[in-house]
Give the backbone structure.
Amino acid sequence: MNRLKTAINWMTLASVGAMVCATTGCSANHQQRRVQAEQHWNEVRGKIKLQLARQQFEHGLVDDAVSYLEEALGWDTKNVEAFMLLAECRLSQGRIQAAERAIEHAYELDNQNAKVLSVRAMIAERTKRFADALRDYRLAREIDDTEVSYLIAEAECLVEMGQADEALRLLETTKLYYDNNPSLLALSGEIALKMGDQDAAEQSFRAVLAAGHYTPVIAEEYALLAVRSHRFAEALTVLQPLFDKHGDDLAPSVIRAVAKCMLELNRPEAVKMTLRDVLKNDPDDYAAWILLAKAGIKSGDMGSARRGASNAERLAPNDPQTLLISAYVKLREKNYASANRALNQLIAQNDRDVLAHCLLGLVSLKTKDFARARASYERALAIDPDCHWARTALNRLSAPTHAEPPIDAYGQNDKQADSHSEVALGLNIP
């Protein structure tokens, strides 16, 4: 009987123990699930705050973005993307050290994240640690070689480190892999331009425009190169839409390029209209005054020519362009002494200026100094044996009478002038 009671007691104790163990296990599992649920909920709240922060950052509200990010990181201290965006926010605020701390947190959490590496490199660039930036951009590209921005940033670092030629080689060897990405080609053009290789730059910019990526900056760069190559019609085709749409916002150099093309394409009246606002906003724009003077000469508007020449004299009295244009204006005003002085000063600077010698010959004709006129034209012909103006003028001087007018710069007689035609300089002014 005692044995039976003992056995029953042991069975009862075992049952109670099993129940206690089961109850404890359930409690532990419940607690674990509760912690996991709370952690998941915190992560969700962190993601919501991160999304709000992104929206604020995209709208330029950086301070508000930082507030949301601090809340996001309060809910989720391991949110790599939140640390990345915080680093970008701090960078835009100019708080470099804070940006570095934020991105280092992200790097500690995930050092194989290409975006983390790129932001880290961006901050290194800001502090001019280009070697560190180059290392991180290269690592980012190794992890994700589909992102062309990493390659572009790598090339920019090389340029900053004085290795522009290596940057160009890098872009050249990878452009096909990235399907001739327009941004990549544009950077190639900018680097080539920086190195003084205008042909390579022009080729890259042309490829960008041909691909249909018509951006104002690339269009301007390409058109300015075309102007330097004297392809004025092509340059104006590119610049005219920009000028019509953004005329007030374009750089003065671009507006002057438009005016230069119009002048070379024989549209002097359009030149004067184009330069009106430029000269109003900056009365000390020497190049614009020179263009106005040339347009005045080309169109026979001596008022504009005189105004342009006068301001050019005010700004750069000894510049060769100033002296040449001033001499022509003085010649038209029959102020032969002043024209003579300007031309002699110009020839003293550059004795090989053919146009200056021809103009001096014309001034000498006006003052009946035929010997000096002959010497001036002979000198012009010695410099340029193909100078039609000088050759024809010498033939006139060798004739029994000087009744026929000397020809102008185009080899045409000025039928409206008196017995001694004034030369129509027009496009032939350098």
Residues 403-430 have pLDDT under 50 and may be disordered.
